[in-house]
Amino acid sequence: MRIMGLDVGTKTIGVAMSDEMGWTAQGLETIAIDEEKKRFGFQRIGEIINEYNVQKIIVGYPKNMNNTIGPRGEASQIYAEKLTEIFELPVKLWDERLSTVAAERVLLEADVSRKKRKKVIDKLAATMILQGFLDSQQ
């Protein structure tokens, strides 16, 4: 069973995919979106779901450090609800506090240039979100 992980932002969505066994997460791609223009990437997500036979979706849930839900967390909740409506798959919100910070640190330690970091950070954050969920299931 494949599980898809999403790191939802205002301009991009990082996408990660599990292996068939649900043990490891790999970064797949970054989808350009535009929250202001109501372009949310659902068509591309549907294509990925069909291509990989996705059975579950994990959406990063950016809680505040004091465990409250801010505007980005609310946006993730709404996005998860839309995914459930459109694709009729189980969608789970997964606490992603500091996943982007951790992804940035990994890329800095690997000496990846700023330009290249910008292209892959959301995909790496999605991978970290999904791997965190997969590890919790073991």
UniProtKB/TrEMBL annotation:
GO terms for biological process: rRNA 5'-end processing. It is found in: Cytoplasm. Residues 1-103 form the YqgF/RNase H-like domain. Keywords: Cytoplasm, Hydrolase, Nuclease, Ribosome biogenesis. Gene3D superfamilies: YqgF/RNase H-like domain (3.30.420.140). Transmembrane segments: none annotated. One of its GO terms (cellular component) is cytosol. The keyword Membrane does not apply. One of its GO terms (molecular function) is hydrolase activity, acting on ester bonds. InterPro entries: RNaseH-like_sf, YqgF, YqgF/RNaseH-like_dom, YqgF/RNaseH-like_dom_sf. The keyword Transport does not apply. It is an enzyme of class 3 (hydrolase). Its EC number is 3.1.-.-. Belongs to the YqgF HJR family. Could be a nuclease involved in processing of the 5'-end of pre-16S rRNA. This is Putative pre-16S rRNA nuclease. It comes from Lederbergia lenta. The gene is yrrK.
